[in-house]
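Exercise: predict the fold of this chain.
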Amino acid sequence: MAFFNNFKLQTPENVELDFTLAGIGNRALALIIDYSILSIVQIFYLLILIILPNLISNIIANFIQDIAAIQTWIIAIFLLIFFVTNTGYFAFFETLWQGQTPGKRFAKIRVIRDDGRPIGLQQATLRALLRPLDDILFIGVLLIIFSESEKRIGDWLAGTLVIQEESEKSSANFLISEEAKTLVSYINNTANLTKLSPENFAVIREYLQRREAMLLQAKHELSRKLAYQVKDIIQLAEIPEGTTANHFLEAVYLAYQQQNLS
């Protein structure tokens, strides 16, 4: 019996990836941590909500007589801030941390798009806005438990999946060329590897593992396509002259793995 469901998808680079879905336990753990953090913030807001309106209204009362209207406006503004904070927490972190919040980072799970790409502000915001709907009568929990792809309403409409984070520490079962090894220090010094998500790393790893079984022409085209996409992702100005796409991808693979092991 499998405790976690696997999900297979074809990336835009035509690389087939196997992901392990996060599972209800990991998602619940992440949510408990995130809601705990939010609760601390909201208690702080609540204290301000209790103290500040009276304080401000007493000051303004020296100039304006309608105290009740002033207090109503101040409470409305604080409630709006309360809502924005609650929604913005998830949208902000999932956009900034490539699909993770503090809770998801602790639970080692991540939100990705259905095609394997990292989520953006649009997907993160839609998921956050629909979270209250998923919380009603535990609708989201029931959908995660009983749907094959473990999606809640926010996931269905945003086109996202929640997966277990890819491990960068697994050993490779393919050879790394000497040319790639000499290129690693150049990649570390000139590229921004923090832009490479675990899913990008997984695509590179899957290609390197499967390339020997590919037809020569397909291997050539896919390696060039992947190399240029990775170059843009890690913000590298140019691939060094004379470097093949395969050597470049091997070097990025090694550099990323070293950076995450250090």
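Check your answer against the key: The chain has ten helices and four strands.
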